[in-house]
From TrEMBL:
Gene3D superfamilies: Rhodopsin 7-helix transmembrane proteins. It is a multi-pass membrane protein. Keywords: Cell membrane, Disulfide bond, G-protein coupled receptor, Glycoprotein, Membrane, Phosphoprotein, Receptor, Transducer, Transmembrane, Transmembrane helix. GO terms for biological process: inflammatory response; phospholipase C-activating G protein-coupled receptor signaling pathway; positive regulation of cytosolic calcium ion concentration. PANTHER family: CHEMOTACTIC RECEPTOR, G-PROTEIN COUPLED RECEPTORS FAMILY 1 PROFILE DOMAIN-CONTAINING PROTEIN-RELATED. This is (Atlantic silverside) hypothetical protein. Pfam families: 7tm_1 (PF00001). The chain crosses the membrane at residues 37-61, 73-96, 116-138, 150-172, 203-225, 245-268, 288-310. It comes from Menidia menidia (Atlantic silverside). It is found in: Cell membrane.
Length: 366
């Protein structure tokens, strides 16, 4: 970020020394309270998130033979979340020491991987929502064409896109020295933007592609899903929609502060260097960046908790297999499907058969 206003001695109002070649002279690790709180949040996230997501991956790979489309998406989401949770140990050390000790390559790679996993998480959640919409609105047409093979190719393409649009975090990130008001020098892994437009480009790209556009698709999908649910009497479908909706809402709540700070940072770049408004905006984003970034990590450990609550009815009967039972969904209904269809065909209730097909198509996570 650009500097805030300068006093006559050539120091910023926030107390950091001026670097004429690098306007981003105020470090997010210069705030003791923010970094301490961020380190505490990340420690809790690491303890809960790593085993929780590993358990989800194990449940799907070891316990489920026939994986539905939703299950494949949840598996990828758990892998992305689990991987980013494993990286938190580096950021805990960074915030605790308030200096970067892992070198230049790790600085670039770790933040690149975090950025990539941020995109992957929201894109996977978006795919879940779009898939639910398709099988709800067109159960007899498009839903039959959405095979697991097709979904695998879509997921592979998504990961390729994620790796490409995360490149700015790899390019505009490096280790530099930073001095505080006590002339104490620390190493910080921070963005390095030579021009203001690069700041606007990177953080606007993150928020638009990683939050605003995906959420617009998600909201549209769920509006159509809810409209469809009101038109059918098979209310058992609502349970799977509620689970995915809970994932969507949880992700949004935890990532919204991060993207608000991004927009504040982008807005600050439109003001002159000596503008009081810019100084205020700079102060807000620099003092809150560590906390909002750590807060965003919580979303990656929240999903295992959501799944546990959703599958609590299976825990007593299935023990550690309860998560697999939750994700299997349609396997419990497979035996009853034929009997339902026979009964309805014999009585000539064709319209109800169509609705039953809709139910089975949408109950992958029941």
């Amino acid at each position: 970020m650009g500097t805030s206003g300068m006093d006559p001695d050539g120091r910023s109002f926030l107390g950091d020394s001026v670097n004429d070649t690098n306007p981003e002279d105020d470090s997010v690790v210069s705030n003791d309270f923010s970094t301490s709180l961020g380190a505490l949040i990340l420690s809790l996230v690491f303890v809960l998130g790593v085993p929780g997501n590993l358990f989800i991956v194990w449940s799907i790979l070891a316990r489920i033979r026939r994986r539905s489309v939703t299950t494949l998406l949840i598996l990828n989401l758990a892998c992305a979340d689990g991987f980013i949770m494993a990286l938190t140990i580096f950021f805990i050390v960074y915030l605790a020491k308030q200096t970067w000790v892992f070198g230049h390559p790790m600085c670039k790679c770790l933040f690149y991987l975090c950025n990539a996993n941020m995109y992957a998480s929201i894109f996977l959640i978006t795919l879940m929502s779009v898939h639910r919409m398709v099988v709800m609105l067109w159960p007899q047409r498009l839903s039959q064409r959405i095979t697991r093979k097709t979904v695998r190719w879509v997921i592979l393409g998504m990961w390729g896109l994620v790796m490409v649009i995360s490149v700015p975090s790899l390019v505009f990130r490096d280790v530099r020295e930073d001095s505080d008001e006590k002339n104490k020098t620390r190493l910080v892994c921070a963005p390095e933007h030579s021009l203001a437009r690069y700041v606007r480009f990177q953080y606007a790209l993150e928020s638009v592609c990683g939050f605003i556009l995906p959420y617009a698709v998600i909201i549209t999908s769920y509006v159509l899903i809810l409209r469809r649910l009101r038109q059918t009497k098979f209310r058992r479908k609502v349970r799977s929609e509620k689970l995915i909706l809970a994932i969507v809402v949880t992700f949004g709540l935890f990532w919204l502060p991060y993207h608000v700070v991004n927009m504040i940072q982008v807005a600050a770049e439109w003001y002159p260097m000596d503008s009081p408004t810019r100084e205020i905006l700079d102060h807000i984003q620099k003092s809150s960046r560590a906390v909002t970034s750590a807060f965003a990590f919580i979303s990656s450990c929240a999903n295992p908790i959501l799944y546990t609550f959703a599958g609590k009815s299976y825990i007593k009967r299935n023990g550690f297999a309860f998560m697999a039972k939750l994700f299997e969904g349609t396997s419990d209904q497979a035996g009853n499907k034929k009997s339902r269809m026979k009964g309805k065909n014999s009585s000539g209730q064709n319209a109800e058969s169509v609705n039953t097909s809709t139910q089975n198509g949408t109950a992958e996570v029941s």
